[in-house]
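re: ur msg from earlier - yeah i can do the NDP complex, just paste it... oh wait u already did. ok heres what im feeding in:
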Amino acid sequence: MPMFEGKSVLVLGGSRGIGAAIVRRFVADGARVTFTYSGSPDAARALAAETGSTAVQTDSSDRDAVIARVRDSGPLDVLVVNAGIAIFGDALEQDPDAVDRLFRINVQSPYHASVEAARRMPPGGRIIVIGSVNGDRMPVPGMASYALSKSALQGMARGLARDFGPRGITINVVQPGPVDTDANPEDGPMRELMHSFMAIKRHGRPEEVAGMVAWLAGPEAGFVTGAMHTIDGAFGA
Ligand code: NDP
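and the outut:
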């Protein structure tokens, strides 16, 4: 029997990149998958048609919309919070509204989605949030808001693990290093600099991150919670 046969999975931010690989992985392993998207309806429709998953538009910068989406998805076996953005540039020149939007998507939404999911999750439920190795190491200027947001997820997971443990629910953070997506293409201008920090001198593949997410959601990971799981080619080592 496929590992996630009969399981209900919601992926927040699943239309492209790492999120799309996570959707494909859970579908391949037998789950019933719903994913959200915001700005990429064509990619979302194509992925839904390809996989038989369900695409729903929900902007992760809208707290109440995210809470309603999680609530209306019914009891979930697995919640994956993948949606995330980065903004680049001199902190002294960044638009504060853009910074606050990043915090809403990268921090507020994961927190409120996780809490809302835990209300209805059965024992054995799994929450997995996509952080970043930049939560541990930020070796370049211009990305402090992003690093802050990914570090915040660490405290969130440690704290919510305590709240959710008695309910039989785990929560973990997966922390990728550079992964080849639209947000960080391997053939982009930062390639050499990023690879210079790494022991394995290539970008990761979205499927590699999805594999770690699937393990954390699976039966072997029931004792793993409140923890960060870095998959980064030793970017942060
Ligand atoms: P992409 O930009 O390639 O994809 C981002 C995904 O998140 C898209 O499906 C996008 O949907 C969704 N998303 C973004 N904003 C919103 C929003 N407001 N509401 C709903 N969905 C949204 O990014 P990656 O796949 O590279 O990154 C995915 C996650 O992995 C992020 O949390 C990122 O921080 C993290 N990460 C990525 C790394 C990398 O090198 N690629 C490294 C470390 C961490 P849509 O287009 O429909 O809006």
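cool cool. The pocket of NDP is lined by residues 13-19, 36-40, 44, 59-61, 82-85, 105, 130, 132, 176, 178-179, 181-184 (CB under 6 Å). ping me if u need the other ligands too
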